[in-house]
Amino acid sequence: MSDDDWREVMWGCERWLTARRPTTAAQLLRAAADALPPQARPDAYGEGEIVEGFERRLAALLGMEAAALMPSGTMAQQIALRIHCARRGVDTVAFHPTCHLEVHEHAGYAHLHGLRAELVGHRDRLIELADLEALHAPIGALLLELPQREIGGRLPDWDALAAQTEWAHAHGAAAHLDGARIWESTPYYERSHEAIAALFDTVYVSLYKGLGGLAGCVLAGPDETIAHARVWRRRHGGTLFHLYPLAAAALRGLDTLVAQMPVFLEHARALAAALSELPGVQVVPDPPQTPLFHLHLRGDRESLQRRALALARETGVWLFGELGPTVVPGVHRLELNVGEAALEIAPRECRELLGAVLAG
Question: Which of 78, 178, 262, 317 would staple 187 via disulfide (CB 3.0–4.6 Å)?
Fold first, then answer.
């Protein structure tokens, strides 16, 4: 079955085990427009109160001096790492083997910026301080991702996180936060966004992963760094004629979804507890540390996907589409992002539905 066929079934459902409901292009654009005052004027290449006010708001939320709106996290993080490394005269950055830069960006950091990667730790666990202490070559920047998406939305404990950023600074390196999902991380730490960001020199946050926006991100940090980043944004072709839709579409998420992250985490843990009772299901991590976690499902991949699709058609409840691989043969990964839409599915009902898929 093609991707279009999968999407057609998903769009026909009434409830979804996802962070948000599928929305049409018109709905996304209307939501962005509705978030703005009627007389709001669009920016010109990022200059204008919608964008500049939004940047000030994000900078204040993260406790940083400045912030710059950018079209993508890929652009923002490569720029941040280049600036940090150039200042230190070192072209090596350290990050986890499943870092987005390594897995999803075709080595853009190397091809575009001449940077080299030092992969730290094992791909199936979090970075530990001992992994950093084992590094011998100097690095210009250490990138840490909170939470670590590819291994189940895991987070280091607070003391471990602080020790790792302190190690970076003690060794003359910058500490950069891939905080695409920083909104989902705060309930676990029971600390503010500002407190988490204070450990780092620069922070990238997504405007759509947890906020439900159109696209884009913000890079925050010291005034001088962000001014330099704006130059690189233009060099990358990222200073679009109008950037305001990216800011406008994220406003609702900032106003309503960020405050609900503890609720989403509570529901994620309730779902995980119910689903862990099913034979052939493993929760990773157990219990979840964020509203994003993984289920490892045992069975034939094609059969599981086919039965999930049939159940969606029959019940109007979308559980999942494609399953990802794990290192264990016959065990497949399902990533769950729990948000507003998932709140409508009770843990007991979810267990019954997934149980039916597993039972065949």
Answer: 262
